Structure formats: C-alpha cells, structure tokens
Amino acid sequence: MPLTLLRQPLANERNETAPLVTAFLRHFSMEITRPSDADLIELKSVLPAKTPVYVPAIPNSPLSELIAAATRLRAQGFEPVPHIAARRIESRAALEDLLSRLSRWANVRRALVIGGDVATAAGPFTSALELIDTGLLQRHGIVEIGIAGYPEGHLRLSTEALDRALVAKIEAAEQTGLAVTIVTQFCFDAAAIANWIERLRALGIEHPVQIGMAGPANVAALMRFARLCGVRASARGLACQPGLVKHLLGVSTPDRIIRPLAESCGERALGRVSAHFFSFGGAAATARWACAAAAGRIVLDRAGGFGVAPR
C-alpha cells in the first residue's frame, strides 16, 4: 500500500495552539510513589525549584514513610504535597502527630485530603470532610488543600453525590481558612474533562483544577493502574483513541489529552486549569517530557496531539 503523507499543521494553527499548550503546562505538578535518592537527584536536575510534588499514602505502609518522602523532597527544593487519607488515620492524636511532624520536618504547607479507598476506617474519620472539619490542618500550618475530582465519574457514587461532596468539602475548607484546589483522578477523555469543568463553573465552583493524567508510560502498566484506580478505560478503549497509544506494546503519552484541553481552556473560558502528572512510567521520564513540553519544545501533529522535540 502507498504511504499516506500526514498534513503538517498550518502556520496560524501552530501560532495559535502552541502557546495554549505551553500555558496549560506552565504550572504542572507531579505525583511520585516511593521516590528513591536516585530519583530525587535526577528530578532536581530537571524540575524547576518549588515544583509541587505529591506523595501518596501507600496502603499498609507506615505514615513514617510518607513523612520521610516529604522531608526528602523539601530538602531537594521541591514543594511536598502529601496525601492524607482520612480512613487510614487511627485516631485524632495520630492525625495531630502526623501533621506536626510533616510541618516540623518537611515544612508542609499543602496537602491532598482524600477519603482513602479502604472498606473499613482505621479510626474516627470516614471521609475527607470529617478530617477537614477538625480544624487541625490549618492549626499545623497547612494553608491549602487539594480535594478529589472525578471527570469520568466514580464506580460507586452518582454524579449528584459527587457534586454534593465536592461542594461540602469546599465550604468546610473555606470556613476554616483553607484555600482549595481540585485535583482529579487520572483521565483519558479530554472532551469529558472539559465538559466536567464547564459544569463546575456553571455550578459557581471557580477554584483551580489540576487535571490528573499519566505521564509517558508503558501501555500495559498504564492499563493496570487504570483498572486498579477504577478509571473507565480498557485496553480496547485506549487503543481505539486515535494517536493516544503510540505503540500498543510501547509508550503512551498524554499529548492528545493535553492539546484539546488547552484549546478548550482558550476557547471556553474554563478558568484556572493545569496539568498534574502521575509518573507511572518513572519519575525522571515524566519530568523530562513535561518540562520539554512546558518549555515549548513541541511539534503539533495532524492527529490532534504533539511530539516533544529534542534540544
């Protein structure tokens, strides 16, 4: 069969779209699970100082591990943002101790407050809202919290229930003097994300939104994480999205999510929206790709995404 030549983006398309992409990526954040010393050394050589780096609360791991990771990130010049999972906190005293050590040793000022996906709560807190309501976060120096958003829905909760929970957490946080950012589960559907943000704005929710997406990752690993997290995607569904999977057994990159989102932000006045990368394919690889794209080293393609150009 003869080769089909792909149309290159027109000059005005390049001039209009590329700045939207770089603006969308300018203030990106990352999430890193169990960063090693080698990871941190490499990240320091790539990421800008004070980049927010989220640290998950790993099930069945001691909270001391979370504190240690946050402390090491701060020492390397990053802004550590630990996850605080309400259902995994054994007591009010344990929460006080965790927050005290995060403040004292890692100078933590931001945290992602989540319910924690476990069947039975370890202590008195069954939801993020209950933890926010304690007033302990700001008492220990937290000034801003992230709360969860679900653009593609939740396996066990209706859209209406998700909306009510989101509004309640925002109100509770603001009543206790905390700034709020909405941080989403990682997603694959740019249109669904943009429509969800537009619906939030119509509800009067104007808070910043960080869109979770997987950085460059092996497709098999990506699908494994999608299933574990309950994301509405399958290997077949991903493969059917044009250009999302570069090679079925190779590496997937989020450019075909980022570009339409960036364009929607420019066209639909979606407010403050930025990218949040999960480093399923490795922290250093995600950081290098995101930094190159944020620096404008992108080449738009016909399929609605872009490639990252070498220096």
Detail the topology: elements first, then pairings.
Elements: H1 11-25, E1 29-31, H2 37-46, E2 52-55, H3 63-75, E3 79-85, H4 92-106, E4 110-114, H5 128-133, H6 136-139, E5 144-149, H7 159-175, E6 179-184, H8 190-202, E7 209-214, E8 217-218, H9 219-229, H10 235-239, E9 251-252, H11 255-268, E10 273-278, H12 283-294, E11 298-300, E12 306-308
Parallel strand pairs: 1-2, 1-10, 2-3, 3-4, 4-5, 5-6, 6-7, 7-10
Antiparallel strand pairs: 8-9, 11-12
Helix pairs in contact: 1-11, 1-12, 2-12, 3-4, 8-11
Globular, elongated, flat, extended or rod-shaped: what is the shape? globular
Structural class: alpha/beta
- Here the CATH topology equals TIM Barrel
Measure the end-to-end span. Answer: 35 Å
Low-confidence stretches: 1-8, 233-237, 242-249
What would you say the CATH architecture is?
A: Alpha-Beta Barrel
Strand order of the largest sheet: 1-2-3-4-5-6-7-10
Helix content: 40-55%
Largest pleated sheet: 8 strands, parallel, barrel
The percentage of residues in β strands lies in: 15-25%
Q: What is Rg?
A: 20 Å
Number of domains: 1
- Give the strand tally: 12
Note the total helix count: 12
